[in-house]
Design a protein that fits this description.
By secondary structure, the chain is of the alpha/beta class. Helices cover 48% and strands 14% of the residues. The model has no long low-confidence stretch (mean pLDDT 91).
Length: 377
């Protein structure tokens, strides 16, 4: 029995090790995005917001200050039933003529709120290329031109980098490391032609491609996934390619979460969609990764209860995991995130194990809190 369990843990380790090696190869292949001229297509930037009175003004200033011809793009803010003063602040602060402010019509449905907001924005847009970001995000003046420079004739979807601002406490620094790991994972997977994850705070796609795939219709029953599902569908169609924008000036910055409870609900929401990916091979990959993490805890328990050999397999698994994930983050620090503080790496790695297991399991059961609102999966 012990030999069988050890064999199982070794198989999971080999799988996860291979997965990390492929990510690192993808990141090493990722070429810098060179800045080009503004695109010939008109651009629509869609920014959903709900209760963002602390961030909306800074967000607006960063969007209005873009180094991109004002006549070549529009900015569409959509209010999702805010209960604070963010809508009033926004209306009184707009300076540019290319800014529109809309409100999502009342809808009793609790699911897919963000998808409904983005879809409403697209319906009211005139752009050929849709860019989405969030109202709690801040952008450098070169953000838009650098993100759009990734587009070529055959590109249908561009994923851009997102970064947590350093909140000067350990919790924020741990979030920086963990979040950078997620973005780099998405980048590496895109580069090896296996796009799985991206972040809706910094993506762009062609409107005609969005419409040809019926938009969010295939996954409107899920609250999360306005970004990843669409990216996967565009990749699956094989008509257009998916690219990641490797350019420091294209990084979108946002604040880390204030509490662990907020962090838990966000990650639970993100995990809730994973079993609904249309590609069954992809679902199997995610299950194998989950089993690797779950196996780490099981090996610890078995080492305490049965045999020291499980401590050996656990230490080997952790060492290989730490080694390769450190290399991935080190690469990310070089190409995108120079301010990343890797001295907190080991602590972040250890805390990552229980949070991935817990959020993955609880995410299967649906409901979570988002923007002070109970949301169904």
């Amino acid at each position: 029995m012990i030999n069988l369990l050890i064999l199982l843990f070794v198989i999971l380790l080999i799988y996860y090790f291979t997965f990390l090696v492929s990510l690192l190869k993808g990141l090493n292949k990722l070429k810098p995005t060179a800045v080009k001229k503004p695109l010939p297509e008109f651009i629509s930037i869609i920014i959903p917001f709900r209760n963002e009175e602390e961030n909306i003004l800074k967000n607006l200033k960063s969007i209005e200050a873009q180094d991109y011809p004002e006549e070549k793009f529009e900015i569409i803010y959509i209010d999702d039933a805010s209960t604070d003063s963010s809508l009033e602040i926004l209306k009184s602060s707009v300076h540019n003529k290319n800014v529109k402010i809309l409100s999502l019509p009342d809808n009793p449905k609790e699911t897919a709120r963000k998808k409904r907001v983005v879809n409403f924005g697209i319906e009211n847009s005139i752009g050929d290329i849709i860019v989405t970001t969030d109202a709690d995000c801040f952008h450098s003046p070169g953000w838009l031109i650098n993100l759009l420079s990734t587009f070529e004739d055959n590109v249908g979807f561009v994923s851009g980098p997102v970064e947590f601002i350093d909140g000067k406490n350990i919790f924020s620094k741990l979030q920086q490391i963990e979040f950078a790991g997620l973005i780099l994972t998405g980048a590496g997977l895109i580069e090896i032609n296996q796009p799985i994850i991206c972040n809706g705070a910094n993506i762009a796609y062609r409107k005609n491609v969005f419409k040809s795939l019926n938009g969010f219709e295939n996954h409107f029953h899920l609250s999360s996934g306005d970004d990843g599902f669409l990216m996967q569908e565009i990749h699956k169609s094989k008509k257009y390619s998916v690219k990641f924008c490797r350019n420091r000036n294209a990084v979108v910055k946002t604040k880390p979460l204030d509490s662990f409870l907020q962090f838990y609900h966000q990650r639970k929401r993100w995990a809730s969609k994973s079993i609904f990916y249309g590609d069954k091979k992809l679902v199997l990959k995610l299950i194998m990764i989950f089993l690797f993490y779950f196996g780490l805890v099981v090996q610890l328990i078995l080492g305490i209860s049965f045999s020291n050999i499980f401590f050996i397999s656990l230490i080997l698994s952790l060492l290989l995991k730490f080694l390769l994930e450190f290399q991935i983050l080190k690469k990310g620090k070089t190409i995108l995130y120079p301010g990343l503080e890797l001295k907190y790496f080991i602590l972040a790695e250890l805390l990552q194990i229980p949070y991935i297991i817990i959020s993955s399991v609880t995410g299967l059961f649906g409901n979570f809190i988002w923007k002070n609102r109970k949301v169904k999966r």
